TrEMBL record:
Lineage: Bacteria, Pseudomonadati, Pseudomonadota, Alphaproteobacteria, Hyphomicrobiales
Pathway participation: Cofactor biosynthesis; ubiquinone biosynthesis [regulation]
Keyword NAD attributed: no
Name listed for the protein in its UniProt record: ABC1 atypical kinase-like domain-containing protein
Keyword Coiled coil among UniProt keywords: no
Length: 518
């Protein structure tokens, strides 16, 4: 009871800040039931005057609420299917910068992680050079056995951050339950599932050993790419709360003028940004999902270098084939093939017509071929494509949404380097190479081999599957009547929870009004 009351009070505070900073402006009242439209109208009355647009307001409100909500906003930036593309792009700009914590605390975290004094680990250890909500970065040096001195970037977990995130996540879970109970239509956006995905994402991001593993995997995948590289993790100096990796000296991709002054070709670098991302996504199925300018450098050799591997995306073979074939289909204007790929992947239900779907895709593809190549946005085409697929009952695929969002960011970075970049000509070599390798004769033989191994595994498991099925059927016969009673009890509990959730939302609204006029 006390825990629920605390969640209620904290939820009221969150609701007040969102309302006061205008963070509710992006909510479409037309999609809400009458009682929530009334609550939204009350919340909008609390807005401060002179605020910006809806997406900007949401960013400001999340920043005021603190690091956990900034992280939540950054997570929502990867889910335009929930907040819309405009809000997602604005949330991408959320500044995850907070004051650094004291040097003494950082040293204690390092010494606790490795059980040694700092002087036994590093030859030098600087004051923090960057700080964010989860961690801050220090520059350090180590001496190799041969006397060589190397510079490292040492990322250190902020003390107490796990406890704060867990507390705030409990409030988010409570609010998600309230929203879901009050508006059945909200289930389409799966608020409870979104919070749980965020919880898993943050849990992984707060174990730096997993980030080091992502860095290592991406480095291995791209080791033969001459125009792209990844810093090396220093495994012996990495723990749950400390991540040490190669220090990167280079020019950030923020300013084109700085890149030119450093002697690099921005047009070539723009092509590298696009092709590196597509190689990661299509060839490797493992891509950096946060490739904005702040996470990209160009080194002295002109190679693109990525940092910060807390957010990564994965695509299975089916998704990689889907992406490659639809991109090539748009390049060749083969719209029926693009439609067919959607059906083969199982993304569009079979009761729809392939020809009707191809007609809808043609409406996207033909207008772009009437424009100059440098005016065509690959990301916009994919966004329109996913909009059209919604008309054909295509279910939301989280991995494809993250891919779409990342492509929007990557294309923006590339176009900032070369405004006249032809995205389709740049993408074609990567797409064709993957299709030739994986859908050609060699790829088909390898696919047949994988299918044979899978079939052999299934056949070998048949006796065990039969035994488990038999046990399930016996248990079902024994517990059928008991299950019926449990289902009825569960229905009564859900009804009571819906009533209390309704009262909770109104209590939050009243609490917000009280705080507003104190």
């Amino acid at each position: 009871m006390i825990g629920s009351l605390l969640h209620l009070l904290r939820g009221a505070h969150v609701g007040f800040v969102l309302a006061r900073e205008g963070g509710l402006a992006f909510v479409d009242a037309a999609e809400l039931p009458p009682h929530l439209r009334l609550a939204l109208r009350i919340g909008r009355m609390l807005e401060r005057p002179g605020l910006g647009d809806g997406a900007a307001r949401l960013s400001k409100a999340l920043t005021r609420l603190g690091p956990s909500y900034v992280k939540f906003g950054q997570f929502l930036a990867t889910r335009p299917d929930i907040v819309g593309m405009a809000a997602a792009l604005d949330l991408e700009k959320l500044q995850d910068r907070v004051p650094a914590f004291p040097q003494g605390q950082a040293i204690r975290v390092v010494e606790t992680a490795f059980g040694k004094p700092l002087r036994d680990l590093f030859a030098s250890f600087s004051e923090p050079v960057a700080a964010a909500s989860i961690a801050q970065v220090h520059k350090a040096t180590v001496l190799d056995p041969d006397g060589t001195q190397r510079m490292l970037a040492v990322k250190i977990m902020r003390p107490g951050v796990r406890e704060r995130f867990q507390r705030d996540l409990q409030v988010m879970r409570f609010m998600a339950r309230v929203v879901n109970a009050l508006s059945p239509q909200a289930e389409r956006l799966r608020p409870r599932e979104v919070v749980e995905i965020l919880a898993r994402s943050v849990t992984m991001e707060m174990d730096f050993r997993l980030e080091a593993a992502a860095m290592s995997e991406l480095a291995q995948n791209t080791k033969d790419d001459e125009d792209f590289r990844v810093p090396r993790p220093e495994w012996e100096l990495t723990a749950r709360d400390v991540l040490s990796s190669e220090w990167i000296d280079g020019t950030r991709l923020h300013a084109r003028a700085d890149i030119v002054a450093a002697g690099h070709d921005p047009q070539a670098l723009g092509r590298t940004v696009i092709q590196s991302f597509l190689r990661q996504a299509i060839r490797d199925g493992f891509f950096h999902a946060d490739m904005h300018q702040g996470n990209l450098f160009v080194d002295a050799q002109g190679r693109l270098v990525a940092v910060d591997f807390g957010i990564m995306g994965r695509l299975g073979m089916a998704e990689r084939r889907f992406l490659a074939e639809i991109l090539l289909g748009f390049i060749l204007r083969d719209y029926r093939r693009v439609a067919q790929v959607h059906f083969e992947a199982g993304y569009v239900p079979r009761h729809h017509s392939v020809d009707d779907f191809a007609q809808a895709i043609r409406a996207i593809g033909e207008p772009i071929h009437q424009r100059r190549a440098d005016e065509i946005s690959m990301a916009k085409v994919l966004t329109l494509l996913f909009d059209v697929t919604a008309l054909f009952d295509m279910s939301t695929r989280t991995e494809l949404v993250m891919l779409q969002k990342t492509m929007v960011v990557v294309e923006g970075v590339a176009r900032s380097l070369d405004p006249r970049l032809d995205m389709w000509t740049t993408a074609e070599p990567v797409v064709r190479a993957w299709i030739a390798r994986n859908l050609g004769p060699v790829g088909r033989v390898e696919g047949a081999g994988r299918a044979a191994l899978t079939l052999a595994d299934v056949v070998a498991d048949i006796p065990d599957i039969a035994q488990r099925l038999r046990r399930i059927l016996v248990r079902f016969d024994e517990e059928g009547s008991h299950e019926a009673v449990q289902i009825r009890n569960l229905a009564r509990m859900e009804k009571r929870r819906a009533v209390w959730s309704t009262l909770a939302l109104w209590a939050i609204a009243v609490g917000a009004l009280v705080m507003a006029f104190r």
